[in-house]
């Protein structure tokens, strides 16, 4: 549980312990450890699907001139949009207005459908940070958002999965080059994590590793090539990615 | 190539030859074969993503009161929506108005992105039939279509992948309980298969097995529990599924 309330100084002192998976599935420490800064973390999960909720924070809906929907707005992001912590995000060629959207991501732990709200905790593996990067110009121009929300690199996830966490009231922050752009709390969600997962699971079977993106608080805005975008969620840690020129 | 111009009588006489994959990846006939009616075919592909085009036939756009979009409408269906030929489709609990949408499905054969229109044939593995089942009531009520187009069973695919086929002018038919409901030709597409794949690949890397749904011709309409829905595409064959009560 390395990141709870971590400051940059605390993070610099974190180490990653190497483990080997045994034949029985258990993990055995090798005795080796590395400074966090010396390892490259992969995305903490490779989801078969990512289901995202739009307009789940009232202030964010209002800032884009939208009403809070009566029925949740749900959209999908493809697995090819996932990148890990520290990975570069190529600026998509079809957009000149990519926005950051810091979000709490929920990682599903077991096969499930028709999950009642009160049993949702049983199907959650844990939580990580996500950036629901959005080509806002394409989103305006195209009635459905597969391209605007689904381009390669549009879903940074990480830095790791936090298994023990109450998602009810966590600070969600996004900085661009160190400057705070989004600052909200998960308590401002219109629909709770449990309500969202119950809703999605009425339609779709959820598989282990599937990811639910729970909406972004107010303060979204553009990022440019070269910008460093960091999503920090209280109790989890920080997910940092740099926008780069697409080759 | 069993299905070109196949009539029911011809289909009844088709056999499926059993093969075993060798260590070098090649397929070796076992010498055993079975009547097509005696085997259960699985979905011919398990896609990592399904990218679908909306309103790609002018008459279909008009029948739902929509304009042909300046920019293509693209949406995603999740892998959990795929079922195979002959599989039952559970009627989703959140809808009372599921519509059939017969479509030509393109199966991608190699990792690719930024594919120029003229090189699209190089990235296509083949073609199959799809039914882009849509909860029309949810589609109207929800701004994004993840649930309306993404419920379990919403993407029947099959019966097999046809590798040698020119997609330019094929008859696409949908019957419900044997009655023709949709009857169009791929030549009526607003954007060709090649244009669609070039467009998608500007945003997303396509992986082997990914599926592109190319839009539905006019004539969409409701299906009920118990209905047998059949999508036939000239040169491929027929994909049949029955709507059943969801348990």
Concise structural overview:
The structure is a homodimer. Chain A contains 5 helices and 17 strands. Chain A is mostly beta strands.
Describe the protein's topology:
Two copies of one chain form a homodimer.
Chain A lengths: L7 H5 L2 E7 L5 E9 L14 E5 L3 H6 L9 E5 L4 E2 L4 E3 L7 E3 L1 E7 L15 E8 L2 E2 H6 L4 H5 L4 E8 L8 E6 L2 E7 L7 H9 L9 E3 L7 E2 L5 E6 L3 E8 L3
Parallel strand pairs in A: 3-14, 5-11, 6-17
Antiparallel strand pairs in A: 1-2, 3-4, 7-10, 7-15, 8-9, 8-14, 9-11, 12-13, 12-16, 16-17
Described by strand count, sense and barrel closure, the largest sheet of chain A is: 7 strands, mixed
Task: Please give the radius of gyration of chain A in angstroms.
Answer: 18 Å
Give the termini distance of chain A in whole angstroms: 37 Å
CATH arch. level architecture of the largest domain in chain A: Alpha-Beta Complex
CATH fold label of the largest domain in chain A: Fumarylacetoacetate hydrolase, domain 2
The helix/strand order of chain A is HEEEHEEEEEEEHHEEEHEEEE
Provide the low-confidence segments of chain A as ranges: 1-5
Mean pLDDT of chain A: 93
Query: How many helices of chain A does DSSP assign?
Result: 5
State the secondary-structure class of chain A: mainly beta
| Main interface: chain pair and counts | A-B, 40 and 40 residues
The portion of residues assigned to helices of chain A is 10-25%
Shape of chain A, please?
A: globular
Percentage of β-strand residues of chain A = 35-45%
**How many distinct domains of chain A?**
2
Quaternary form? homodimer
**Total number of beta strands of chain A:** 17
Spatially, the strands of the biggest sheet of chain A line up as 4-3-14-8-9-11-5
Q: Could you state the CATH homologous superfamily of the largest domain in chain A?
A: Fumarylacetoacetase-like, C-terminal domain
Q: What CATH first level of the largest domain in chain A would be assigned?
A: Alpha Beta
């Amino acid at each position: 549980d390395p990141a709870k309330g971590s400051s940059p100084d605390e993070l610099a002192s974190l180490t990653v312990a190497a483990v080997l998976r045994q034949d029985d599935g258990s993990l055995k420490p090798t005795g080796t450890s590395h400074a966090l800064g010396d390892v490259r973390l992969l995305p903490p999960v490779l989801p078969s699907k990512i289901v995202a909720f739009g307009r789940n924070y009232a202030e964010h809906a209002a800032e884009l001139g939208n009403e809070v929907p009566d029925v949740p707005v749900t959209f999908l992001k493809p697995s090819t949009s996932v990148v890990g912590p520290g990975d570069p995000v190529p600026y998509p060629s079809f957009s000149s207005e990519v926005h950051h959207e810091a979000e709490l991501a929920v990682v599903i732990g077991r096969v499930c459908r028709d999950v009642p709200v009160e049993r949702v905790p049983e199907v959650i593996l844990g939580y990580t940070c996500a950036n629901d990067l959005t080509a806002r110009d394409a989103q305006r121009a195209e009635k459905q958002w597969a391209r605007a929300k689904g381009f390669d690199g549009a879903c940074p996830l990480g830095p790791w999965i936090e298994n023990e966490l109450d998602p009810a009231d966590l600070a969600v922050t996004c900085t661009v080059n160190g400057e705070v752009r989004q600052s909200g709390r998960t308590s401002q969600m219109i629909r709770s994590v449990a309500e969202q997962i119950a809703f999605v699971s009425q339609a779709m079977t959820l598989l282990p590793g599937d990811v639910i993106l729970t909406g972004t608080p107010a303060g979204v805005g553009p990022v440019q090539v070269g910008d460093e975008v960091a999503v920090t969620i209280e109790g989890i840690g920080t997910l940092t990615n740099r926008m780069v020129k697409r080759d």
